[in-house]
Amino acid sequence: MEHVNESTRLLTADEVVALLGGDLKPETIVGWARAGKIGSVKIGRQRRFTQQDVDRFIEVNHQDQSDFGRSRGPLQQTPRSRASNRKPYRAP
What pTM, to 2 d.p., does this model score? Predict the structure, then answer.
């Protein structure tokens, strides 16, 4: 049987959530992967992550692991543009 190196072992989104901590959900991790914010490989319909992918994500985001699930993390949606915040035009 071949020995699997820890850095090449494929992690599930649930395992990545456990590594990053916070209030994250697996769906968030998969969404970040689709957006290219965290590296992943797609196997069939499933996404998998290497420890290297997770380490790189943490390094790029320069944050403590416990901060990723907090509401004001670096990957939050940006506020709407000013134009989209305007009230709809109403004819007099």
Answer: 0.61
